[in-house]
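Q: What residues go here?
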């Protein structure tokens, strides 16, 4: 009954949940396996939504790392109050749990199958010259460069958010003199109170990860993706506001980094959702990684679509309500940022 384009975070968890509710679901995912990339943080809301969809919290906990707080090390005090259910995941570990949740069901998961075109009026989808069997509802969870969004709303393209992001996972344990299990931020702030560079790191007994966001020109497509760390050592050392010894230790223990442009998909101007093709997650409203909520938003979309689909409700109405909520929350976050600076 439901076809999902994209077996990333939202597509996979939605497929697993629908199949467990006896709803026929087929997923087409372009990658042979999903989960490459860096690491991400899920908050209590994301975990509540995952649990509501039937994903085991025990398995999620076993696959992730407790995060006891976020701390801007350039500010006095402990930083924002802790969310007891906030956890850090290597993306591969999160996707392993979600993929097991979905493959353990009757959901039909077709990896290595790129959807190359979508007829948004008839709901026909194609992979090359082949027309794929599609259903009356098509959920396009195909990420920030969504093909479905290109077909539905060609002008609503992802916009560069002004920063590049470099993410590293160390090959060897690194245990600096900062508090463990805390996501530390070290920022350089401009005269308007905006961070121009943010170096972040997290470590515990088993993992050490770091990232940097650098304000600079957008990178060309061929400069994005996994790369040897060497190319980035100098700009990171020059840009990072953190203790140079800490930065050097993290870089020295890292072989490969993942580099990307921070981008946002504008939502305020979006066309109203209409069947048969409904956008979900980053395909509809990706937000810069600096916000740290994109995956949470995608999971909550999956939860809203699931609730609509299993109760006979309209997925377009569910996504209209999700957009309203997301826009309200983003406006609140922007107001808080202005008040805090
Ligand atoms: C560096 C970085 C750090 C981040 N950190 C955080 C964080 O800490 N917390 C947080 O909440 N969010 C974070 N995010 C955002 C988060 O990763 C995304 O919001 C989330 O992955 C969106 O999930 P999704 O399922 O919508 O899309 P994705 O997870 O991107 O999945 C889309 C899937 O669709 C597939 N696909 C694309 N096109 C096609 C096609 N034509 N045919 C078939 N399959 C296709 C792709 O291969 C992919 O598997 C971060 C993002 C980045 C880039």
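A:
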């Amino acid at each position: 009954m439901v076809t999902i384009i994209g077996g990333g975070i939202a597509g996979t968890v939605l497929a697993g949940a629908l199949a467990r509710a006896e709803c026929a679901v087929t997923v087409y995912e372009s990658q042979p396996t999903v989960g490459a990339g860096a690491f991400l943080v899920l908050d209590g809301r994301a975990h509540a939504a995952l649990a509501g969809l039937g994903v085991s919290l025990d398995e999620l906990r076993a696959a992730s790392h407790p995060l006891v707080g976020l701390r801007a090390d350039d500010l006095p005090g402990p930083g924002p109050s802790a969310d007891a259910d906030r956890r850090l995941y290597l993306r591969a570990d999160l996707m392993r749990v979600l993929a097991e949740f979905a493959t353990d069901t009757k959901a039909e998961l077709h990896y290595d199958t790129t959807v190359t075109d979508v007829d948004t009026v008839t709901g026909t989808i194609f992979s090359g010259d082949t027309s794929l069997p599609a259903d009356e509802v098509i959920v396009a969870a195909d990420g920030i460069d969504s093909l479905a969004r290109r077909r539905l709303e060609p002008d609503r393209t992802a916009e560069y958010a002004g920063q590049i992001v470099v993410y590293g996972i160390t090959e060897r344990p690194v245990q600096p003199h900062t508090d463990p299990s805390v996501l530390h931020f070290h920022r350089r702030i401009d005269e308007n109170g905006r961070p121009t560079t943010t170096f972040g790191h997290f470590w515990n007994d088993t993992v050490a990860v770091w990232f940097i966001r650098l304000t600079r020109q957008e990178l060309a497509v061929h400069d994005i993706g996994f790369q040897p760390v060497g190319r980035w050592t100098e700009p990171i050392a020059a840009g990072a506001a953190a203790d140079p010894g800490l930065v050097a230790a993290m870089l020295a223990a890292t072989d490969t980094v993942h580099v990307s442009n921070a981008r946002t998909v504008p939502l305020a101007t979006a066309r109203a959702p209409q069947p048969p093709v409904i956008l979900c997650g980053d395909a509809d409203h990706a937000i810069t990684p600096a916000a740290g909520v994109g995956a949470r938003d995608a999971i909550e979309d999956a939860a809203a679509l699931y609730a609509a689909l299993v109760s006979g409700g309209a997925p377009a109405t569910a996504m209209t309500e999700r957009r309203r909520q997301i826009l309200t929350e983003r406006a609140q976050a922007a107001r808080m940022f202005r008040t805090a600076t």
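A: Context that may help when evaluating the design: Residues 315-340 form the longest helix (26 residues). The first strand starts at residue 2 and ends at 5.
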